[in-house]
Design a protein that fits this description.
By secondary structure, the chain is mainly alpha-helical. About 65% of the residues lie in helices and about 0% in strands. It is built from 14 helices and no strands. It is globular and about 50 Å long.
Length: about 325
């Protein structure tokens, strides 16, 4: 279990260790920075109870009413902050996705472009460390939407997830491929190993998926998030595969991203035309939610990229604590 980073995350860690309720005040939630280390870590820990849990923590804590009450309060703060940051968010799918379907002419601000053209091996190791919190459970948050879909949307979503989970082969599961990547980069591939190193901007990107995934009311937003990831993945993955090759990171490191270039190009078509198209045919009133999910994803990915670029430009680690030897 990691150490807390403030009152709220400290309350969660103590509650999980002791088996008792979390000790916090309503005021501490209301004054918490929705983007800060304390709130984002507290949310991450509470969400993790719905994934693999923690050693020594009773599995029944997943549905503990006191923990759920705190989680709801933190989610409310987070969701309000997202909406406040996106007052002019697109209201339609076309408006949300049109900018993502065209490769920018100027890639000077692109993190993947930086890594492809001038990134160093230590930066690739940091990038993989950050992304490990999601990629070691890749596609799990999106699987929650399956029982909430019907017809075309469900069939296409299951087809995409089947690929993400290795098409029936354990050695092809994308989370397994990322663990292999970490091995090439001499990183520990243990699930959750680098949570202590993960800063709030990274935690927020993973928490967004869990927030959308755990609420049926946000199923449209989860589809928007998933579609955004698939639409933007292939070009970025091509650049990251080049970065791994250029820095001699190793065959498994390069393969992870090379695999996503081809797979996600196919997935993009399926998710846009069948998952979104099918969902809108069944529930047209969810269009604004789909657009919001896409906009929120772009917002948080941009915040994370800014955090990483700023740290590297200042000659310091983008992690909370630098990796040994880097």
């Amino acid at each position: 279990m990691v150490e807390g980073r403030g009152e709220l995350s400290g309350a969660v860690t103590r509650a999980l260790r002791s088996g008792g309720p979390p000790a916090y005040t309503t005021a501490s939630v209301l004054k918490a920075d929705p983007w800060g280390e304390d709130l984002q870590l507290a949310l991450y820990l509470l969400y993790e109870l719905h994934y693999r849990g923690f050693d020594g923590v009773d599995d029944t804590r997943e549905w503990d009413p006191d923990l759920l009450r705190l989680r709801q309060a933190l989610e409310t703060r987070f969701l309000h902050a997202l909406r406040a940051e996106l007052p002019d968010a697109p209201g339609t799918v076309d408006e949300a996705f049109a900018p993502l379907l065209v490769e920018p002419v100027d890639l000077s601000g692109s993190l993947s472009q930086h890594l492809a053209t001038e990134g160093e091996l230590w930066q690739l190791r940091e990038y993989a460390t950050l992304r490990s919190l999601y990629h070691l459970k890749e596609a799990d948050p999106h699987a929650w939407v399956i029982p909430r879909l019907t017809g075309r949307a469900k069939a296409a979503m299951v087809a995409i997830e089947y690929d993400e989970f290795g098409a029936g082969r354990a050695d092809r599961v994308h989370a397994r491929l990322f663990a292999d990547l970490m091995g090439d980069l001499e990183l520990d591939p243990a699930y959750g190993r680098y949570l202590d190193q993960a800063p709030a901007p990274l935690l927020a990107t993973v928490n967004l998926m869990s927030l959308f995934g755990l609420h049926r009311a946000l199923r449209g937003a989860l589809v928007g998030h998933f579609a955004c990831v698939e639409v933007t993945s292939s070009p970025g993955s091509r650049r990251l595969a080049k970065a791994m090759r250029r820095c001699g990171a190793g065959p498994a490191a390069e393969h992870f991203y090379a695999e996503h270039v081809e797979a996600d190009a196919v997935h993009e078509q399926l998710v846009r035309h069948e998952v979104i198209g099918g969902l809108l045919a069944d529930e047209p009133d969810l269009e604004a939610d789909i657009a919001f999910g896409c906009a929120a994803t772009v917002l948080l990915e941009d915040r994370l990229a800014d955090h990483i670029r700023t740290a590297w430009e200042q000659g310091r680690s983008a992690l909370r604590t630098a990796l040994p030897g880097d």
